[in-house]
Amino acid sequence: MIGATGAALTTTGMSAKSYASILGSNERVNVAVIGIRGMGQNHIEGYSKLKNARVTALCDIDRNFFEPRIKKHFVDKGLEKPKTYTDLRILYENKDVDAVSIVTPNHWHALAAIWAIQAGKHVSVEKPCCHNIYEGRKLVEAAEKYPVIVQDGAEQRSNPCAESMADFLHGGKLGEVYMAKGICYKRRHTIGRTPDEPIPPGVDYDLWLGPAPERPFSKNRFHYNWHWNWDYGNGDIGNQGVHEIDIARWGLNVTLPTRISSIGGHFMFDDDQQTPNTQLTVFEFPNAQGGGDAKKLLQFEVRHWLSNSEGIGGENPNDNTYMVSSDNEVGNLFFGSKGYMTKNLNQWQTFMGDKREPGESGKGFGNHYANFIDAIRYNDQKLAKGDIREGFYSCALIHLGNIAYRVGRTLDFDPVTMKFINDPEADALLTREYRSPFIVPDVV
């Protein structure tokens, strides 16, 4: 059904690109938000605040959310009620919907985005844009093949703070930047154990499973706690961590690594969680212009129990990081031959020379939602800021790290073929078996 719709749009119907070219500067873009339990509400609010966009449809497999979300975000604010859908495939047939914002669990991201692209919809897809490397490659192929705007959910790409950070580092002002570090320390308690039980009323569980294997319903494999199950999530490195990995990779000015190591475990708790709650991952990249061993390193650390800061959350009044509190510390560090840099959501600060004296800094928030809408209205992919290929490269790192963790050894990787060197066991984890009819299409 979706494939036929996409084909019609690219052969006999008006393409999204040609539509964008005639979209007047005062026209509003009609957006549908898919997934409205948690982060989806941020998307509803973000688009509703824009004068050139309106949320005209909501989609969720849990119908219990429709009434409270519509009251809170539409009725109470005097906004027109949106249409509601349970099945995104039916939503994609609505020609009045110009764009979709995908805020589903990870295992649905790429497939939902590809189907939307084929249906002629502009797409903003939450991080991580893919659940594994194979489907991320297919998502990039679809974005390059069809004439629509596709935005990755790495919203820090829209912040002037991050843009000036990259300009500073890439301009050589920190010297040779040989290492970046991302951290995600979040106090997370045990999820316990939950039994298999009947599907709750109002939930289309088959649609929720989508491409994942068929399994009985359990609360720890459903709302939010799906993050800690390999069938649906990617652990904290693929939850909060993908934001900081994207910043670290951007600052290092690298794409895909040649060697990956990852160790860790699920400590302290005897519960249903499958993914590690403590994980230390190192990526090695070639650096032909570098001194010494001519390589760059990207470190990433997940810790489920905040015990001490990393030097970016309080020792120095000029140091600060994204989401610092008594329970969380999340951010980035960059190390160069001339000094080091701390980076948070809204500010970066350098400390230069042997005495680590405060140097240049930068700050500034952007608006990822507004950039997506502007990109659609002016038919300019660059305005979206979150390029889907860049998003895929960053997502590839989380998947490569998790694969190294799961097979339990250091892996050598070929960035050209996007396969491991003589390691069929690791290669098998580059994709998954898809449950019909929720199969990622072979786009090319």
TrEMBL record:
<dbReference type="GO" id="GO:0000166">
    <property type="term" value="F:nucleotide binding"/>
</dbReference>
<protein>
    <submittedName>
        <fullName>Oxidoreductase family, NAD-binding Rossmann fold</fullName>
    </submittedName>
</protein>
<dbReference type="InterPro" id="IPR036291">
    <property type="entry name" value="NAD(P)-bd_dom_sf"/>
</dbReference>
<dbReference type="InterPro" id="IPR043906">
    <property type="entry name" value="Gfo/Idh/MocA_OxRdtase_bact_C"/>
</dbReference>
<dbReference type="Pfam" id="PF19051">
    <property type="entry name" value="GFO_IDH_MocA_C2"/>
</dbReference>
<dbReference type="InterPro" id="IPR000683">
    <property type="entry name" value="Gfo/Idh/MocA-like_OxRdtase_N"/>
</dbReference>
<dbReference type="Pfam" id="PF01408">
    <property type="entry name" value="GFO_IDH_MocA"/>
</dbReference>
<feature type="domain" description="Gfo/Idh/MocA-like oxidoreductase bacterial type C-terminal">
    <location>
        <begin position="195"/>
        <end position="250"/>
    </location>
</feature>
<dbReference type="InterPro" id="IPR050463">
    <property type="entry name" value="Gfo/Idh/MocA_oxidrdct_glycsds"/>
</dbReference>
<feature type="domain" description="Gfo/Idh/MocA-like oxidoreductase bacterial type C-terminal">
    <location>
        <begin position="368"/>
        <end position="438"/>
    </location>
</feature>
<feature type="domain" description="Gfo/Idh/MocA-like oxidoreductase N-terminal">
    <location>
        <begin position="29"/>
        <end position="151"/>
    </location>
</feature>
